[in-house]
Amino acid sequence: LTSVVVPTTPFEGQKPGTSGLRKKVKVFMEKHYTENFVQCIFDALGEDKVKGSTLIVGGDGRYFSKQAINIIIRLASANGVAKLIIGQLGILSTPAVSNLIRQLNVLGGIVLTASHNPGGIRHDFGIKYNIENGGPAPDHVTDAIYEHTKNIKEYRTTPKLETDRLIDVLGTYTFNVDGKDFVVEVIDPSIEYVALMRDIFDFHKLRALIRGTDTKPPFNVLIDSMNGVTGVYVRRIFVEELGASPDSNVRRIVPLDNFGEIHPDPNLTYAKDLVDKVKDNCEYHLGAAFDGDGDRNMIIGKHAFFVTPSDSLAVLANNLECIPYFQKNGVHGFARSMPTAAAVDRVAEKLGKEMFEVPTGWKYFGNLMDAGRLSLCGEESFGTGSDHIREKDGIWAVLAWLSIIEHKNMSVEDILKEHWHTYGRNYFTRYDYEECDTDAANLMMHHVEQLIGCSSFVGKTYTSSGKSYTVRKADNFSYVDPIDNSVAKKSVRVLFEDGSRLIYRLSGTGSSGATIRIYIDSYEKDNVLSEAQDTLKPLVEIGLEISQIKKFTGRDAPTVIT
Ligand code: VG1
Ligand code: CO
């Protein structure tokens, strides 16, 4: 087979966001669109790295994955890649890709997903590149990819390479392209990942918890894959390894290319169906859901007692020593993204661990992990993970929670209450305004930046429903990576004297329009058992007033509250 050079012209807007390039499927379907972006990944990596390399390819199986994989196979072969390792049918969760890159020591991976965004022909597709440590490409790599997309003139492909149904059957297929061997290996998507989990956790104990023993009744879980990619792993781990019932302990575990027309996003809004099931059936002790590509998780207890991701991170930090992986490797430091509530900071302080605050997006944790300074981290957006890989990991988070429950022999709710009584509680909520007019959203952010820049802003007191908050500090959060000194500037934050915070930022994962996120966080030392939305109401109102969001966007209410 011989490769050819195809002339092309740049497309606008091929700028990777928080987590890769995400657009509507029909955009990726435009002639040359996907080819251009894939070629720019290779161009940004450079010939030296790409020639003779091995890459992992796979994703959440959403609509257009197979077409994209066929394009990647042809372009990779023509660019001198020696081998692609691809999940069967194109399936690999994001954590599984990260693990394979590390285990097999390869150059990187191409992840085909738009994560929690809906899928199907009318919805979203995405392409993300992960580097050799298994983590999302850092800013300097995605910036380089973007620069190439603005100037691309041609791409290389091998049009005659027969890809039809190539990824349907396990096996190794060798082609001769331009006189060199090009190998496609189609692998079982779960073997390596299941082995990793078996290594990290004590599966005997977890099995005893889920099945019950002579002296203890079963701990009933309801695990919801939301028709996303985790179904494959949930069946292998929870059903086959840990003995959960395929009928009553798991649901929606067959990956669908349109996720059954739901948002595969584990939160109280989009996973309401699971929440209702756990609420109605008091037999369930824990409910959990994942997003489309398997890196997010939501945990709820009996009667759907909700665990905020910020609290989840703090509880895990406080109890890591019951997990074999941490007994063996030790616990180094903790980290959270800036908007994530600071509950984990209190744990770090008590345990004497290093604590890092990074911008939104998992790519900022990688350097710290590689430097051995970070063991556990999380984001308020339902992301939790550790240094076992370089992505957040939904299934890992649930297994970690089950390990703690087994070890402490306590319910989810009691574990949380005990934690709050020890550390106090960070009440947290996030308001999302999806698909706003982009200009209006930019104007609003500009307004907030101007306002906080006024010399009179610090010291100003805002009052709502009888509660007053005085501004201590306000800035555009900027982060200097302690390992490579790169700088990221991302979100506007207003810090109040009592430690409460308001944060404003624009999402970088949407595929159309702009999504405005407002994060509201308030710490209470003793009042730990109130309703979050009641406790935060005054601060929320102040947040809306400061931003003038209604005036700018016309929105009366958020699309989603988490
Ligand atoms: C969102 C979340 C962020 C997360 C990112 C990717 O980004 O806020 O915390 O890392 O999604 O998650 P943004 O820019 O829309 O706020 V995933 O599971 O969509 O890869
Ligand atoms: Co995801």
From TrEMBL:
Subcellular location: Cytoplasm
GO cellular component: cytosol
Pfam families associated with the record: PGM1_C_vert_fung, PGM_PMM_I, PGM_PMM_II, PGM_PMM_III
Main localization (coarse): cytoplasm
SUPFAM superfamilies, A to Z: Phosphoglucomutase, C-terminal domain, Phosphoglucomutase, first 3 domains
UniProt keyword list: Cytoplasm, Isomerase, Magnesium, Metal-binding, Phosphoprotein
One BP annotation, GO: carbohydrate metabolic process
Domain of life (superkingdom): Eukaryota
Family: Belongs to the phosphohexose mutase family.
Record-given protein name: phosphoglucomutase (alpha-D-glucose-1,6-bisphosphate-dependent)
